[in-house]
Structures are given as C-alpha cells and as structure tokens.
Amino acid sequence: GKITVAYNKNGDPITTEDLGVAGAMTAIMVKSLNPNLMQTIEGQPCMVHAGPFANIAVGQSSIIGDLIGLKLSEYHVTESGFGADIGFEKFCDVKCRISGLVPDCAVIVCTIRALKMHGGGPKVVPGRPLDPAYTQENLELVEKGCENLIAHIEIVKKFGVSPVVCINHFHTDTDAEVKLVRRLAEQAGARVAVSQHWLKGGEGALELAEAVMDACKEGSNNFRFLYESDMPLREKVEIIAKEIYGADGVT
Description:
The protein is an alpha/beta fold. Helix content is 43%, strand content 13%. The strands form 3 sheets. The protein has a 3-stranded parallel β-sheet, with helices on both faces. The protein has a two-stranded antiparallel ribbon with strand order 1-2. β3 and β4 form a beta hairpin. α6 packs parallel to α7. It is globular and about 60 Å long. It starts with a strand and ends in an 8-residue tail after the last helix.
C-alpha cells in the first residue's frame, strides 16, 4: 500500500493504496512471497528471493530471504549487486537500516582480467577474441587496475565492515599477477583469498571460506551508516556523492 506509483500535479505521491489496488496486488503476489529453495550441485541450500536484478534500483536480495537463511545455517551469504559503490552503499544505508541486520564481513570479488581493463587495457568486444593483454602476464595493467579495487576496499571500510578480496582465478592468470593483487589488497587492509571453484567446486573455495570465517570472528561492532536518516535529502545525496563516488560536490 505504500508503493509510490506516480505524483499528482501538486507533486504529492500517489500510492497503490490511493488507487485502491493494493489488495488486488497482494492477492496476486501472495504465493510468490516465499523464497524459492534451491541447492547447488554440491547440495548447499540456496534461496532465490528478489535477487539483485529483481529490484534493479537497489541491487539486493530480499530481507525475507536473509531472515530465513540466518535461521538455517551458521553462515549466511547474501548478494549485493553492482559493486561496492552503488550496491554495497545501498545495502548498508537502506537495507541494513530497514532490517536491523548488519554484515560481519563483505566479500569483494575481482578478476585479473577485469583489473587489467580497469587499468586501461584494450577494449573488449563480445564475440571477438580477447586481446593478448588479458591472457598473458601484464603486471603494469594489473597494478594500475588495482587502484579501482582499493577504492572499493576503502568504501567497505567506511562502513566499519571487514573486507575480504576474492580473486576469482582464471587459468590464464599468472602467479606473479595474483601475488601483486594480494600484496596491494592486503596493504589496503583487506584479507585476500584465491578461489578456484570453477575448477574444483567447493574444495576450490576453501581458502575463501576460511578467510570469510576469520573476518566474521571480528564481527561488526564498528558498523556505521554513511548518513543519518533524518538528514535533509540534499545532504544525504552530497555525502554519498563525495564519500562513495569521489565528487567535489553536487549541483
């Protein structure tokens, strides 16, 4: 009933309750309220409920799914789409504020190839072969691209959450490239794990799982919001623009 669907000519919000359709919408959606329980090929329970693209504006899975997952296991992993800027910021400032739940740690997934692209690598065109820069060792591109990774680490730390960098390993990645990312990410204050789940399944993600468990032991005693909910909207926007996106200000 609180969903805003339009504004009248005076600028006042018009809700589904105003239109008299909230009840009908509820009747249609009642069976879709329950999360869809699935499992991975290794048998771990996995819930799909309003995944990040179900609500493109927020990029989060549902609070209902999280609450159920927390009752069923010692560790619950929930996805926050679109990176540590647009995704994680909304996760903390919007979702956590509403749910009252806070994360014990945040996993930032990166690949050597993506870091090379962030570092100014050649353009990637779908359907065309990758440039050799992405399949052969290039430490200069990786190091330059790590500036982007470090920015995401710093965003996570702004909220008082422990960051864990997961290097999603490709068979073309070299030991020197992985070592470089590990060194720079650790210097920025993150735990780092290399994951080869694509090759070895769950066994290939053990290093990541152990890093996450280790980070969770620290807990989230220092968790904080970026802004207070009673701040004027303009101030909220300005804080997000400056702190998350590096803007000088908002016009």
